[in-house]
Amino acid sequence: MSQSDKTPSAFDDVFSANAEYAANFQLKGLQPVAQRGLALITCMDSRIEPLDMLGLEPGDAKILRNAGARVTDDTLRTLVLAVYLLGVDRVLVLPHTRCKMASVEGDDAVHDVIEEQYGVDTRSLEFHTDNNQRGALRHDLERIRHHPLLPEGLPVTGAIYDVDTGRVDPTGL
């Protein structure tokens, strides 16, 4: 028996909550396509409620989340699938204010902190940190706009979500 099998109590709260959720489950029959054609790339930060903040309902959009709302190779792979198989016809990249990934001086700083505090060498990973958030957003938008497998003319824009006010600031990038 593995260590994780010995401590199921660490997850009892979420499995119990799921039982309640399943008892009143209302998304049966929801189609897997993005009903409003939107792909949203945003951060994994728990202060972000992607559906509520944009007036969306379950099924309206494909939501891709990662640390810093960065357009990584995996994000691009997922966008290609979303465009051709899941009804996506527009993309919004939405990082946020007070993001940890935009507050450090590059990946080396994150690697150093993790190694110093936890003794784990993470240098085999790229965290895609960038303290020039608007510059990183411009770069990421260009990665999407010029990806050879995505349709030319695919509407792509960026905005920044303010975690203190709930407002989305379109950047016009």
Describe this structure in words.
There is one protein chain. This protein is α/β, with parallel strands linked by helices and 173 residues long. It has one domain (33-170): 3-Layer(aba) Sandwich (Beta-carbonic Anhydrase, Chain A). It is 34% helix and 15% strand. It is built from 6 helices and 5 strands, in the order ααβαβαβααββ. A 5-stranded mixed sheet has the order 2-1-3-4-5. β1 (38-43), α3 (50-53) and β2 form a beta-alpha-beta unit. The protein is globular. It starts with a helix and ends with a strand.
CATH topology: Beta-carbonic Anhydrase, Chain A
Q: State the major sheet.
A: 5 strands, mixed
> Which value, in Å, is the CA radius of gyration?
18 Å
CATH class placement: Alpha Beta
Helix/strand-derived category reads alpha/beta
User: What fraction of the residues are assigned to beta strands by DSSP?
Assistant: 15-25%
Give, in spatial order, the strands making up the sheet with the most strands.
2-1-3-4-5
Total count of helical runs of at least 4 residues: 6
* Topology, number of strands: 5
Helix content: 25-40%
Shape: globular
CATH H-level homologous superfamily name: Carbonic anhydrase
